[in-house]
Design a protein that fits this description.
single chain, about 100 residues, mainly alpha, 5 helices, about 0% strand
């Protein structure tokens, strides 16, 4: 995917959510204020864990348990904010973008 600016992270995070949850929609159709626990996403603890592991794999950094516990994960935006925050604290992660191009944006 090459260089990514910080404003591309929401789309990249939403792409992972759409893919992992097999939603059959475009990432841009996923509203920022949509509850993670809505009938659309049907998030549970195992799904959240799967998403977090996928973020780590796709983006090349680790999301600490403490970060997850301190985050108020209730909407799509809160999930994006968590990933952007963690990425910003990792060496060049935001500037470099994802670890691979498997999302095919």
């Amino acid at each position: 995917m090459g260089k990514s600016s910080s404003d591309e992270w929401p789309t990249m995070v939403k792409s992972v959510v759409v893919d992992v949850l097999d939603l059959g929609i475009e990432p841009g159709e996923l509203a920022d204020d949509l509850s993670l626990y809505s009938s659309t996403l049907k998030m549970d603890s195992m799904t959240l864990l799967h998403l977090l592991v996928t973020f780590e794999s796709e983006f090349g950094f680790e999301i600490d348990d403490e970060d997850v516990m301190n985050a108020s994960l209730d909407t799509v935006r809160s999930l994006v904010d968590l990933v952007v925050d963690v990425a910003g604290r990792n060496q060049g992660a935001v500037a470099a973008g994802p670890a691979n191009d498997s999302l095919g944006a």
